[in-house]
Design brief:
With 344 residues, the protein is α+β, with helices and mostly antiparallel strands. It is built from eight helices and 15 strands. Bound molecules: 6-O-phosphono-alpha-D-fructofuranose.
Length: 344
């Protein structure tokens, strides 16, 4: 009798994480529990994102976050959901968030003195909420510098090379959770009918090159000559430019642009401008976690000169220029910026 036509090899995120736990001989299951706490919060946020256009959850709550950006209700809601899941999950002893000026240490009563802190952007790209464009959550997981005590600022100010795990959730045509613990990158798609993230993109590898470049071209005049020359190269302008120009795709939502480029190949850039000499994106909870993922998938992430993973943050909301994506495209950008530096 042939295979049961109804049998379907569905591997849930929980099953996958537990199975992978065996990769960590000394794992006590804390990281497994922490990743599941994040997944639960992502499901709750999904529910609200999916009905954002229907319920009076749009519009501005009136507050402003440290970035001076007006907070949308969904920003605040997502931030609260992730912080609550982490606090009550009992594994992390603190969280740093784009939406909070300082980090939040959890009272001893909630955590068993284990050894993780989480840095996150709870809802990146939230200016797109009102126009139904994909948005995302980005998270980093570090071990505390010492176990069994409350979180300290230094626990968050660690280089990307110290990351234990990193991932993102994209609330798009479907909700996906993509993460790495340093042993490859795997993507899970939420099946609302069973309320589970199911393995849909095993062992993601980023194409070594690609035909997409993502950047806010409105800032062209504010970019350095090296960036302008690279952009012209992408468009097929210049002696060694590609025969077929690349395609510009920029949705104004980092997670959405990053995810598309991860799957199809491409480069995302947020270079320095005169008004933002360090670029716009945050090292701790945007650039470093996505750098971990992209390197695990075979891509690159730099500030145009230096590997992002080697940066040690000086403060929680430090900005850094960002060039992330397919190896050959990032290397080409670095070539132009190196020529510019040598000529100056
Ligand atoms: P700009 C959203 O605010 C964000 O942080 C990223 O998600 C996005 O790629 C970028 O900023 C868009 O910034 O200056 O091009 O509008």
């Amino acid at each position: 009798m042939g295979p049961n036509k109804f049998s379907r090899e569905v591997i849930t995120l929980t099953e996958f994480i537990i199975a992978r736990q065996k990769d960590f001989p000394f794992a006590k299951g804390d990281l497994t529990s922490l990743l599941n706490d994040i997944a639960v919060a992502a499901k709750i946020v999904t529910r609200e994102v999916r009905k954002a256009g229907l319920v009076d959850i749009l519009g501005e709550v009136g507050a402003e976050n440290i970035q001076g950006e007006s907070q949308k209700k969904l920003d605040v809601y997502a931030n609260e959901q992730f912080i609550s899941a982490l606090r009550h999950g009992g594994v992390a002893c603190g969280v740093a968030s784009e939406e909070n000026d300082d980090f939040i240490g959890f009272d001893e009563q909630f955590y068993t003195g284990t050894t993780y802190v989480v840095a996150m952007d709870p809802l990146d790209g939230s200016s797109n909420i009102d126009v139904n464009v994909s948005i995302g959550t980005i998270f980093s997981i570090y071990r505390t510098l010492e176990p069994n005590r409350s979180a300290s600022l230094e626990d968050f100010l660690q280089a990307g090379t110290e990351l234990v795990a990193a991932g993102y959730v994209i609330y798009g045509s479907s909700t996906m959770l993509v993460y790495t613990t340093g042993r490859g990158v795997n993507g899970f798609t939420l099946d609302p009918s069973i309320g589970e993230f199911c393995l849909s993109h095993p062992d993601i590898k980023m194409p070594e090159t690609g035909s997409i470049y993502s950047i806010n071209e409105g800032n062209y005049k504010a970019f350095s000559e090296g960036v302008q020359h690279y952009l012209n190269w992408c468009k097929g302008i210049g002696e060694d430019a590609p025969e077929k120009p690349l395609t510009g795709r920029y949705i104004g939502s980092l997670v959405a642009d990053f995810h598309r480029n991860l799957i199809k190949g491409g480069i995302y850039m947020y270079p320095p401008t005169k008004s933002a000499p360090k670029g716009k994106l945050r090292l701790l909870y945007e650039c470093a976690p996505l750098a971990f993922i992209v390197e695990q998938a075979g891509g690159m992430a730099t500030d145009g000169h230096r590997r992002i993973m080697e940066y040690t943050p000086r403060e929680l909301h430090q900005r850094v220029p960002y060039f992330v994506g397919s190896k050959h495209l990032v290397e080409k950008a670095m070539e132009f910026l190196k020529q510019e530096a040598e000529a100056s």
